[in-house]
Specification:
Helix content: 55-70%
Strand order of the largest sheet: 1-2
Distance between the termini: 36 Å
CATH class: Mainly Alpha
InterPro entries: Adenine_glyco, DNA-3mA_glycosylase, DNA_glycosylase
Order of helices and strands: EEHHHHHHHHHHH
Keywords: Metal-binding, Zinc
CATH architecture: Orthogonal Bundle
Largest sheet: 2 strands, antiparallel
Structural class: mainly alpha
Number of strands: 2
CATH superfamily: Hypothetical protein, domain 2
GO biological process, one term: base-excision repair
Protein name: DNA-3-methyladenine glycosylase I
CATH topology: Endonuclease III, domain 1
GO molecular function: DNA-3-methyladenine glycosylase activity; metal ion binding
Length: 205
């Protein structure tokens, strides 16, 4: 835990960096049911592989511009010419495999929506139940090395459906950020706020 200059106690991982603190306080763990935001986060977690999330966070607006606001209906139509343009874009992570993976995953997202109703319905259907959630004392470990049986199961299912760059660690980091679990550490000023939002959330069917 850390105590900020504002006197609030928070999870340790954002440190004292203003943009990271804002992400921790205003986004991380708050439940999301918007398909484009869910797709965005899963893709950005894939881009983050081997890098720090802070690097991706600081490039996020560039990613949004480059990938049509992560509207997967549009991204699914990207061509090799678009890939070449993205590989020349200094504002994003220029990794050919991850760029092509995002386009592939956009196509798979359309298929998943056709079968499951929406990305939100698919992911929230797999929200861990109370007895499946980790003990609060394990949250620091999960933040440092996020991976659970449920994230492993989702990862395997997505890969079976043709998705890529969706390993169990990537999926659990996505679950933490999108509010499918509340991994703010006990004592963090944001934990109760996030839990209230989760309780009030109407789960997509």
């Amino acid at each position: 835990m850390i105590v900020g200059s504002d006197g609030l106690t928070r999870c340790f991982w954002p440190g004292v960096l203003p943009d990271y603190l804002a992400y921790h306080d205003d986004e991380w763990g708050r439940p999301v049911t918007d398909d484009h935001r869910l797709f965005e986060k899963l893709c950005l977690e894939g881009f983050q592989s081997g890098l720090s999330w802070l690097t991706i966070l600081r490039k996020r607006e560039n990613f949004r511009e480059a990938f049509a606001g992560f509207d997967f209906e549009k991204v699914a139509r990207f061509t090799e010419k678009d890939v070449e343009g993205l590989l020349g874009n200094p504002g994003i992570v220029r990794h050919g495999g991850k760029i092509r993976s995002t386009i592939n995953n956009a196509q798979r997202a359309i298929e998943l929506c056709e079968k499951e109703g929406s990305l939100a319905a698919y992911f929230w259907r797999q929200e861990p139940q109370p007895h499946e959630r980790p003990d609060p004392v394990d949250y620091p470990t999960l933040i440092a090395n996020p991976k659970t049986e449920i994230s492993t199961r989702i990862s395997k299912d997505l890969k079976k459906r043709g998705w890529s760059f969706v390993g169990p660690t990537t999926v659990y980091a996505f679950m933490q950020a999108m509010g499918l679990v509340n991994d703010h550490i006990e004592g963090c000023a944001c934990r109760a706020k996030v839990e209230d939002l989760r309780k009030a959330l109407r789960r997509p069917s």
